[in-house]
Amino acid sequence: MSNSDHNGQGAPDHNWEEMLRAIFGPDGAEQIIERMKAEGQDPDATMSQMFNPTNIAMVTQQIQAMLGSSGEGPVNWQLAERVARETITRKNMDRLSADKADRTRSSMRTASLWLDAASEFDPATGPNMALTRLDWIAHSLGTFRKLIEPIGANVARAFTDAFSAQTEHLPPQMAGLFGDPTAFISKMIASVLGVQYGGALAELAVKSFGSTDTGVPLLEGSSSILVPSNIDEFAKDLEIPEEEILFYVAVREAAAARLYTRVPWLRPRVLDTIAEIASGIDINMESIEEQVRGMAIDPMRMDPTDMPEIDMSNIFVLELSEEQEDAVERLQHLLSLIEGWVSEVSARAVLPHLPNAVPMRELFARRYATDNPAKAVWEAQLGIELAARRQREAAAFWQLAEAKKGIKDRDAMWSHPDLLPTAEALDNPESFFDGEQEDIEAELDSFLEGLFGDAEQGEAPHEAAFGDDDRPHREDNDEVGESDNDSSSEDPDQG
């Protein structure tokens, strides 16, 4: 009988320690051994039995069951959704009564009426929805995945490379246990990231009032949504009546929904810019390798929701390329313009109706700029700050735009990105309207001059600009308006 057969008749073979160190690193192997001793297990007996060739098939099946099916991609999103939902159910489960849902939807209908006097944009076409935190996860997961997956791919690739380098010296006895080590490691990291990102999504779910107050438009579609339990939690320690807080949040949500719905280029621009930044962020391999050496996954206690956590705080290389810095500046400027517009329009809409309109504007401006806990979530997971750093300057710009141009022409500036103010214009908005606006009008005059120049060569102006089928008609606009009115005449609300 060989020493490798540890059945009480021979001395135990400590080759299993070498195997364990080869897989998990010295620190990880030591953690597993110490945990087993603390639980009263004999590491020699347990691990010798585990690494016995007759048990390899069983252990392999256990590992595969633990990791589950991660699907295609670097992150196990099935596990991420499961973790997010279980985290809410275990720690922050909320209930939504029919009465509470009705009052929440009623506040959104009222908010829409108030906004009609403050914005030229029509209401969002989707239903008004009152959601629980679990509902919010279901509606937000798709966009959250699009934002996170590019950086998740970089992180997964870095960890896989680090683990693969460590397992190059894997003892031959372990080949049958893991099969292809790279495939096993990729699956394991996909599960680790799934647990990590699921926890982050749950954290957002307990802090979000609606679809956009986390800094990005997470909801797909054109609805207004509110999470009453999160609003109640925020309002409970304030000296302002909860009903006023609810109305103010409803107006902000409805304003943001109108903007993202009626400006079709806006949401894709925000999400694409975030993806552009995230996909190009470099990973600090020294931090990754250090974490790999200390990462312990106990093969005898394989629970996918109890995977080791990746410390994201030091894995991103802080030095951005010029292209990335430009993208970050563009993103923060655009988020500032969006938040400034929402803030200004919302404040104008509620002023005649809510006694605490002025202090609430300052309250929400402060929350968005400094106290919004969602900022920490995005910064930790994406490595970038999703913040409207100049939302106060942007709000002042939109206030001046209304004074100079009126509500209709102010909102028309969103029709194309080139019509929006630059970052420099926020420093001196008067110059934008006195100078840059004149340049835009000059360009328009030049275009019209060229258009009518073509007409002098024998073609009518409207025929030069439009074909017979794409010529705009007032009747078409009226039909669109009637369609919107028809759809809004139905009860759009759903729980």
Name the features:
495 residues; mainly alpha; 20 helices; 1% strand; disordered N terminus
Percentage of residues in strands: under 5%
How many helices does DSSP assign? Answer: 20
Helical content stands at 55-70%
Q: Given the helix and strand composition, which structural class is it? A: mainly alpha
What's the rounded overall pLDDT mean?
76
Commentary on this structure:
- With 495 residues, this protein is mostly helical.
- The chain is built from 20 helices and 2 strands.
- It is globular.
- The model is unreliable at 1-12, 296-305 and 459-492 (pLDDT under 50).
SSE diagram, text form:
Elements: H1 15-38, H2 43-50, H3 56-67, H4 77-91, H5 98-116, E1 128-130, H6 133-166, H7 175-178, H8 181-205, E2 224-226, H9 228-235, H10 242-262, H11 266-279, H12 285-294, H13 322-350, H14 357-371, H15 374-382, H16 391-412, H17 423-427, H18 429-456, H19 461-465, H20 474-489
Parallel strand pairs: 1-2
Outline:
By secondary structure, the chain is mainly α. It is built from 20 helices and two strands. The chain has a two-stranded parallel ribbon.
